[in-house]
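Q: Is it fine to ask for two folds in a single conversation?
A: Yes, each is treated on its own. Send the first.
Q: Here.
A: Result:
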Amino acid sequence: MHDASIYRELKRQFMEELLASIVPFWEKHSPDMDYGGYFSCLDRDGAVFDTDKFLWMQGRELWCFSYLYNNVEHRKEWLGLARLGAEFLRQYAFASNGDCWFSVDREGKPLVVPYNIFTDCFCAAGFAEYARASGETWPLKEAERLWYRIQNRKEKPKGIWTKQISDNRPIQTMAMPMIQLWLADVFHGILPDSEIEAIVAASVQQIMTCHANKKRMLLFERVFRDGSHPQGMDGRLLSPGHTLETLWLTLYALRKTGMNNKNKDLLNEYLDTIAKIAKNTIKIGWDEKYGGIYYYRDSENKPLEKLEADMKLWWVHVEAMCATLLLYRMTFDEFFWDWFVKIKDWSWSNFRDPSYGEWFGYLDRQGQVANSLKGGKWKGMFHIPRALLICSEILDELYAVSNLNSAVKSANQNSTF
């Protein structure tokens, strides 16, 4: 354990970054006050460079403003911005079958078919969190409807738009069980505890028995249902950021649902394995020459067909911060504390934009800005604020534990026998 003041100072930095840089950027530049919803395609200075609306970005931003209102402060402007997104989605998000369009134009006319289940996942999360903030019943009903629709679709997420011929190569990816873990947290208290606990247990089992390779202590993106690997690039693919995000979401979900049921046993069973996988992932993912975490790696150091593999992305680093800090909280292994500090410092030095606020999203291998955008089709108001809030929560825990340890130590020193 470290001195409690270290945890308090880091939390101060994280909350200052959130409330003085990240959130103000989106408050100022993202709302579309004429047509509703949010602009996500924002240049370095916040200028809008594309007015199309990608609905998973709409769902993420709705979740963010609602979560800030529910968990940081009841600011009426946050609730108002959440309502702006919720009403836009209520009116324009859904195709005739109830699934969410992938994108619409500024006024809400659909542009891309509802092929991506993750759009529905983020819209469901947004409606659920907004229901808590507003107290309205309609977003709760939409959230629950989407939740059950997702459960029905998840075995074949892209439906008729699936390109893969699964009869010949039935690959399953890690993204679905991972997002189920986050959704389970968002829907905690909305759906019955038994239903949430079952989703968490099933998602963890898929991740830890299929995607986790216990011999190599690595987490693979694409596997067969029995945990074996497809031949070639698919079977060797590692995504360090996605692995670390999945690991912390696994631990976070098991902690929350494991107080009084069998998920506590799963947490005890898998904690050591998760820690070992995280250590190997960090070692493989870290760029020893330039610093930062690679986007993709090949598990056998063979060529990657992904041309962006050497890039350094914003979300990879903030999810790595969550993973290392949570693992330190749960193990008190200094390896994780040291890496948390190292990743945090590199991220603070390279991604932040002190001139205009927010973070750049895409750096080249050397850590130089490769694209000036602050938001786009894939980057929006989500990973950074979520990570800053999760890390702040964990730092509060560490502060409390450190103070308790100090009090016990002082009492022992002052006791007489």
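Q: Second one now.
A: Result:
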Amino acid sequence: MPLEFGKDLSFDDQISISIEGTNHILDILDQHQVKATFFSTVVFAQNAPDVIKRINEGGHELASHAYFHSAFEPEHFASSRKALQEISSQEISGFRMPRMKNVDENEVRKAGYKYNSSINPTWLPGRYNNLNKPRTLFKEADIWQIPASVSPILRFPLFWLSFHNLPIKIYRWLAERTYKKDGYLNIYFHPWEFTELGDQERFGFPGYVSRNSGKKMIERMNSFIGDLKRKKYRFCTIKDFLDNYKFKSI
């Protein structure tokens, strides 16, 4: 991300920030006894073995986020899955393309994945226009497509930027409305959001990226998960969702 705003962050800094953020996420999930899916690049997994071990031992799911975040070749579908399985001793069932870019569904299937979660079914200027895609899960090329959650009708994205910038009560209202309409919620965040990002000289982030990061992000996520748990919402990994909810509503 700093590269997009004219800043150069060393590889060691990138890894250490991601490790710090992932451990904050795991602390939150442990506190609330919630399981989640972690989409990891092979490069991160190779450089953060203790974090991958903690993800495994915590009962979370590890899925592929390709081999590198900054470069992609078609062979990375299969090679990233194989490498992550060797590193984690987990079956890798899911794939998410960095930056939610378009992927060849047939290549995802041939690489052995059971699901793809690379679609944000909305329009984001400069990123993607997926208004022609289904808003909720569907099957294509014989694998499940699990789009990121967007609100009904307007397709307002419930992704990380919304969580940072909307008043938390409004975000929670949109999330609950979407959950009740669709029967599930699939939202995503990045480890670095859980670290302090306000250093303009170091990161170059505009306010809409750095707002409510670090401690404020940890507090927001604790509040969000805690409130949904009190209301008896269920949490699970994407793999468990597919395994156990065999789409009674479909």
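Q: Anything structural to flag on that second result?
A: Two points. Residues 2-231 form a domain with the TIM Barrel fold (CATH 3.20.20.370). Residues 11-32 form the longest helix (22 residues).
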